[in-house]
Specification:
HAD_sf, single chain, 47% helix, 11 helices, Rossmann fold, HAD-like_sf, five-stranded parallel beta sheet, alpha/beta
Length: 216
């Protein structure tokens, strides 16, 4: 399949103000393009993608402080995509699954936040990856990070959960990943997904470029 160029970068100014009608129109248009392209799963990284900082994998300064770093454009994208029937997932190396859930509940309507799948680098998740890769379950294996193929192990876990919950099978070309890490973007593209690298200053206007590249 034809994938979005993984080296395509976005660099627009961000802001925390309530989005204008024009800004919301950009989100709506991009989500409409996702639907037109047949996308069923919007997978979004957390650090430096949904939020504008890197949390370090473990955050101990409180949910409220972290929620202040959520990018309004990403918040509105996740809400709109969910409202339009897309599955939305957070796929992240961050370890605190519960914290991300609480952050989403702070910035989104709870009915939307509760629908978003979250796959973080929890202990259970990492141990499952060790087990599936044939690693021994000893102290050495537990201390080593398994090969996650970028965000592919996270996406696979989300796909399994979606199938269990809804009986829906999602094909590789029906998935798009938004991630600040170019390596993760390249790996996603090599697996047949659409993928965009998100730059630090991504904002509503960036969705125009997303849409143009998606529909090429």
């Amino acid at each position: 399949m034809c994938c979005v160029n993984p080296c395509f970068k976005l660099s627009m100014a961000s802001g925390n103000a309530k989005p204008s009608k024009l800004m919301r129109a950009k989100v709506d248009s991009f989500v409409a393009a996702l639907l037109k392209k047949g996308i069923k799963l919007l997978a979004v990284d957390f650090d430096k993608t949904i939020i504008d900082i890197h949390s370090g994998g473990v955050w101990d300064e409180g949910v409220d402080k972290l929620a202040m770093h959520v990018r309004p454009c990403m918040r509105d994208l996740m809400e709109t995509a969910s409202n339009k029937g897309l599955f939305v997932a957070v796929v992240t190396y961050h370890r605190q699954n519960w914290l991300i859930k609480e952050v989403l509940q702070k910035v989104l309507p709870k009915k939307i936040a509760n629908k978003i799948y979250i796959q973080a680098n929890t202990i259970d998740f990492l141990l499952r990856q060790h087990s599936s890769s044939g690693n021994t379950d000893d102290g050495t294996a537990r201390s080593m990070l398994p090969d996650l193929n970028g965000k592919q192990a996270h996406i696979a876990s989300v796909l399994s959960d979606i199938y269990k919950d809804h009986g829906v099978t999602i094909k590789k070309e029906e998935i798009i990943l938004l991630d600040d890490d170019i390596n993760n973007v390249r790996i996603a593209s090599s697996f047949g997904h659409y993928a965009f690298q998100v730059q630090q200053n991504v904002d509503y206007s960036s969705f125009d470029s997303f849409e143009t590249m998606l529909l090429l």
